[in-house]
Design a protein that fits this description.
single chain, 277 residues, alpha/beta, Rossmann fold, 2 domains, six-stranded mixed beta sheet, six-stranded parallel beta sheet, 10 helices, 19% strand, binds 2'-monophosphoadenosine-5'-diphosphate, Shikimate dehydrogenase (NADP(+)), Shikimate_DH-bd_N, amino-acid biosynthesis, EC 1.1.1.25
Length: 277
């Protein structure tokens, strides 16, 4: 069987093996997908060893996405824009690095939630790796405006500069700005929480009026219970969605890259949802 892994540290709780097993069963692909725990100082060596054993590809998770980007000998444009890699594909001559997180987010919003981004006002909360990975795939949808807000405003400004350059390179006319949470201007159609505040059960302090019943509030995090951000959004009447669909869609994109077939994600997402308790 063709071999794939998800490499991380920790990696025990990764749902990727279950997701890829479901995709493989559904599409009749003969593949084996396991977890690979790499030592914190041993990512490249773990990849090398897995490749030497005939491994064909890997998903990369915390904390190795930047190292994976450095290890790749060729990057897709969206991986280069993200500065991070979550998907590796090995061949005899190269290591291709891709980043499917952002397109996973966009697919979950546009196709699964049925919310178009074209012409919309989007607010991105956070300016770390998760936020950066989402920028190029979102710009490709040609929103009217992308506001990047972050606790540390200098990081939002840095990301805004990268995003503006991406928009110019794509000839996309989206207006990209950066600010602090308390300076966020006006009302938004879509608000994406790419901060890790939910891990501390915290919510970025947002001004009144940024969201209402017309807003889709999306948290990249997920869990059995709604995150603090989604509880806050629900109180303001927003439509709420967590990141479980993004997880499944990023996996589907990696699977399509490796196997050349696109799996159907709806049933897998339903199964995962039922399994969160
Ligand atoms: P990731 O790869 O998940 O994006 P990261 O690069 O460490 O992780 O980025 C974490 C993001 O969450 C940052 O935008 C961070 O804000 P700062 O740049 O100001 O540190 C944000 N964040 C983390 N905890 C937060 C909190 N309690 N409130 C608001 N923002 C928070």
């Amino acid at each position: 069987k063709d071999r794939y892994v998800v490499i991380g540290n920790p990696v025990t709780h990764s749902k990727s093996p279950a997701i890829h097993a479901a995709f493989a069963a559904q599409t009749g692909q003969q593949m084996d997908y396991q977890r690979l725990l790499a030592p914190l100082d041993g990512f490249a060596a773990s990849v090398r060893a897995f490749r030497a054993q005939g491994g064909l590809g890997a998903n990369v998770t915390v904390p190795f996405k930047l190292e994976a980007c450095a290890l790749a000998t060729r990057l897709t444009p969206r991986a280069a824009a993200a500065g991070a890699v979550n998907t590796l594909q090995f061949s005899d001559t190269q290591i291709l690095g891709d980043n499917t997180d952002g397109i996973g987010l966009v697919t979950d919003i546009v196709q699964n939630a049925g919310v178009a981004l074209r012409g919309k006002r989007i607010l991105l909360l956070g300016a770390g790796g998760a936020a950066r990975g989402a920028v190029l795939p979102m710009l490709e949808q040609q929103p009217a405006m992308l506001v990047i807000a972050n606790r540390t405003v200098s990081k939002a400004q840095e990301l805004q500069q990268l995003a503006s350059a991406d928009a110019a390179a794509q000839a996309v006319r989206t207006v990209v700005t950066a600010c602090r949470f308390e300076e966020i201007p006006g009302h938004f159609d879509v608000i994406i929480n790419a901060t890790s505040a939910s891990l501390q059960d915290a919510v970025p302090m947002l001004p009144a009026g940024v969201m209402d019943g017309r807003t889709l509030a999306y948290d990249m995090m997920y869990g059995a219970q709604p995150t603090a951000f989604l509880r806050f959004a629900a109180q303001h009447g927003a439509q709420c969605r967590d990141g479980l669909g993004m997880l499944v869609e990023q996996a589907a994109e990696a699977f399509a890259l490796w196997r050349g077939v696109r799996p159907d994600t709806a049933g897998v997402l339903q199964q995962l949802r039922a399994g969160l308790q």
